Each structure stands twice: as structure tokens, then as C-alpha cells.
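hey so u asked for the seq, here:
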Amino acid sequence: MHDTKYLLDIIILLSAAVIIVVVFWKLNISPVLGYFVAGTIIGSHGFHLIESSAIINNLAEFGVVFLLFLIGIELTFDRLIAMRIHVFGFGTLQVIVSAVIIWGIARMFNIDYKGSVVIGGALALSSTAIVLQVLQEKGHQASQIGRLSIAVLLLQDFAVVPLIVMLPLLAGESKNSITIMLLYSVLKAGVALALIFITGRLLLRPLFSTIASIKSSEIFIATTLLIVLGAAFITENFNLSMALGAFVSGLLVAETEYRYDVEQVVLPFKKLLLGLFFMTVGMSINITLLISKLSIIILLSFLLIIIKSSIIFILCKFFRFQIASAIKAGLLLSQGGEFAFILFGLAAEKNVLSSDLAQILMMITTITMAFTPLLATLGDWISHLINKNKISFSSQELLLDTQDLDQHVVVVGFGRVGRMVARVLTAEQVHYIASDIQPHVVKNGRDEGFPVYLGNLTKLSTLESMGISRAKIIIIAINNDVTTKKIISLVAKNFPNIIIAVRLPDLTNAETYQDLGAHYLIPETCETGLQLGAVALGISGFSANAISSLKNNFRTGGYFITKKHTEE
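ran it, C-alpha cells below
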């Protein structure tokens, strides 16, 4: 007879997730909170329906691993380099300033020097899993706040290394100096990341090419999982987080032509295991302890949120973010993070912190994590109040909002066509910025969270404010022949390396647009007819591949790509 205990645990986990998360979804509340509540109810501190076993906790950690892998795929090295100021500048300052201030407050509570160091370092970190999940739910990964949050969280992953290294020193277990230990840890981190980077650059593309030629979905899935888990294994064995290794491997996969296939393989694992991770956090909530220490835990939880959100707000203003963006970032990143559980657990084992204090700190971390979806919603609401009547931005404000954009897309016109382009780019987390000359269009777009600004792009100064010199492509989605021609001429003359794609009603002015410098021409009437013809072919029994080939032939033969771009 097989041991069915783990099977029963899995059934209980899935049942709780399905029932409670569906209820929260119906109530229009973040599913993350649903997972927390589900975990609290079924955990050993709730109705004791399931034990928080090591196997479940270890499995749940892979939710964060797959999440960071997908973030790596979506970012690419070029985008990461463009974010370097926020990663190493903003991120470093956030960790250091937060750690020092929290250390000082811990000392005020008569906690000894060593314990205060651990508390300051651990609570300076935010939750990668929850912040990224909230950003994805809101579709804000590619927004300015999304980019900043990802940059800060990446730096925090690196910051875990010196914090873990310091624990044996604080416990008096190591006779080496902290400088030697830190240098050694940095060297190990460099070796681990270099190993992943070099191996990935040399092997990934030929490996995927070979696997793809076999045409076996099972082998492709196995290969993808091997890459993710292999990179996680390397960094774990070099005392780095598994998620960091997965992130780097994701960056490498992003450079191959198989990135979208890989993303589809990993996505179901990420969603399932990340939900499990949130449930295990909920299972860690000790209801008895929470009730007995309710006032102090709630007070300290709000104190942590206020301190971290204030620090991040001030840093945002220092880095010249707008007030609304600074408030949103502060509230979004104000919680404790999953690494705090590891650090507090190790500190208790090494007697740097008492077991009771470590439990209270873990509870504070859990409470702040649970509040994150609500805090993010509060940030959006405050931002909306600040900007609800603001649709006009100065060139300086626009420059600040686009300062970290690189290889992005500029969308001109935010009507039905421009909005659809924005939705596609948002879905694929491609960075973009949009503009329109109609105030009500801009207001509606901004109310829905789109990065759209009021601006006349027939002016060179407005184009420059939108970071056009660093953009990859400009999409002109307006229905005004005169304005379209002006923008094409202006961009082609001043920014010859930028690809220009143009919406036009038909092919009447196609040759004129081509002569002015447009690379891609998309006539509405032709494309509509082509799509309707494709429907007819499908009903008539033509295969999807045949229809796709025919559509491409019509496009390249009659329109879509101009001679200028194909010659380049």
C-alpha cells in the first residue's frame, strides 16, 4: 500500500486554492491575498489540515525561480544594461539607507548590535515574488514603476550574499575578517554567474536548434526545465539565490529565437508553483502568536511599511521621479521579503536572535507581504487623484519619465489603432511610450494605466523628450495625412536609424510615404480584406500554414515592407 499522505496534502492544497482564490477573484480582490488566506486556513496554525513539510516548502520556492527566469526572458541584456543606474544606484542606496535606519530603530528597542544588523539587513529587502505578481496582475511590468521595481529587486537578490556571509561572523563561528569573507563571496558569485553566462552563450542556441529538429515537445520541455533548474543549482551551490541563477539563464534564453517557445513551457509551472509559494507563506502565519502579540505586531508592521515607503519616496524624488510615481513605488516595495524568513531562521539557529524575536519578525514580514496588493491599489488610487486632471506634461517631466527607456517603441496616436498596439506591447512586456494631441484621449489612457502623454510630435523637442534617439521603432497610428508626412520627414531626417511604421487608410499615398522615409506601411483596407480572405480560405479547407504563407506573399508583394527597409 502506497503512502497517500502527500497525495492528500496536495489535494487539500489544490482544493483550498481553487475555492478561496475563485471567491477572491469574484470579489475583485488580488488572488495573492486569496493564496495567503487559503494557506492560513489549512496550515498547522489554522485548522491543521496540512503540515508545512519541507518538501512542500522546497517545491514552493521554485515558483520564485520560474518567475525570475521569465523576468529574465522578458528583460534581455540590452534592457538590463539600460536599467543599470536604477539597479546599482537606486537599488544600492535603498538597501543601505533602509538597513541603517531599521538597524537604528532596532537598537532603540534595546536589541543588541548583532541582532540589529540582521534585522536591518533582512527587513531592507522586499518580496520579489509578491511585487512582480502584483505588477503582472496590473499589467505594469513595462511601466516606469515596473522597471524601477525590477531593478531594485535584482539588486536586493545580490545583497542577500553579504548578509548570509555576515551571519557566521556575527555568531562568532568564523575567525576570518568580514572583508576577506565578503571578497570571497563576491569572487564565488562572479565565478557562478560567469559559469552560467559562458555555458549559456556557447551551448543554448545549438542545443535548442538540435532539440527543435527532433520535433519532440517532451524533449523540449525537459530541456527547458534542465536549463532553469541547472542554473538554479549552480547559484545555490555558490551560496547565491536559486532565483538569481534562473534570472541569468532567462537573459541568455532571451537572446535566442526560441524565447517564446520556452516562455510557454515555463509559464504553467510558474503560475502553479508561485501560488503554492504564497500559500506556504500563509501557512507560516502563527495565529496564536498573532493574537497574543497583536498590537505590537500590527504596530511594527505599519512602522516598517511607513519607514520603507518613506525612504523609497525620498530616493525617487532624488532620482527625479514625479510625486505620483514616487508614492506608488514606495507603497509597492514597502513590505518585507521572502529572504527575511531565511535570514531570521539562520540567525535564530546561530543564537544571533532569540527564537521568540525571530518568530515575531517573521510574522511582521508575513503581514506586510499580505498587505502588498492593498498597498499597491492604494498607490494607484493616490496616483490617480494626483494626476486625474493632469494631462499636460512639460518636456522636462517627459524626459524624466523616459530617462531609463532604451530600445523602446514610440507610438504616435492613441485612438483605436494606437491603443491596440499598446495592448499588444503591454501583453509582451515591451517597453513603449505613447502620445496623442487630444486631451480626453490622453486622460482616458492614463486612467487605464497606459504611458500616454499629450504632445505634438511634429515638433523635434517633443520627439527628443520621448527618447526617440534611443528608440528602436516609431509607430505612426494617426489618421491625418499632413501630420503623418511631417512626422515621417522629421524622424527620417534627424534620426535615420529609427525604423518608421505607418498606418494609412489605403495605398493612395504609399509611394509618397516611402519616399519620405517610411519602412513599414500598413493600409487598413488592404489588411482588413486580407484577414477576411484568410477567414474564407480557412472555411474552404486551407491549412493554417498555407494561409499564413499566402498572407505573407500578398503583404511583401503589394505592401507592408517597403523596398528601402528590405535593402537595408
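The mean pLDDT is 83. The two ends are 69 Å apart (CA to CA).
lmk if thats what u needed
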